[in-house]
Specification:
Length: about 110
């Protein structure tokens, strides 16, 4: 059985007019930037569906780290600083909002 990873999650909301530009930049520029250096093990992106009524942000990003030390190293890294600067330069002033973020430690895993 593989060890559970620590999770950093972000939620993002953007206007319908910005979605194509945002998603292209996020997938092709931002994610490759933040993944440099090997501290981040994986990133998954999700988009909310209309299966149930909800008031959450449209986009969810889940970042996986081996442990808290790797996350803290990444938070203090030049890699993240560069990615934040690029985000501000590229998306600053546009209708894109990072609405929440949180860091989770593993508790339990059930199923496959």
């Amino acid at each position: 059985m593989s060890r559970q990873r620590f999770i950093y999650q972000l939620t993002i909301q953007c206007s319908p007019q910005m979605e194509a530009e945002f998603n292209k930049w996020y997938d092709e520029v931002h994610i490759p930037l933040v993944m440099r250096g090997g501290m981040l093990k994986a990133i998954s992106r999700y988009k909310v569906t209309d299966a149930i009524e909800t008031n959450v942000s449209k986009y969810l990003t889940v970042c996986e780290f081996e442990d808290r030390a790797a996350f803290e190293k990444w938070l203090a890294s030049d890699i993240l600083a560069e990615a934040k600067a690029d985000r501000e330069k590229t998306m600053g002033g546009k209708d894109v909002v990072w609405t929440s973020r949180a860091f989770y430690e593993p508790m339990a895993r059930f199923g496959v």
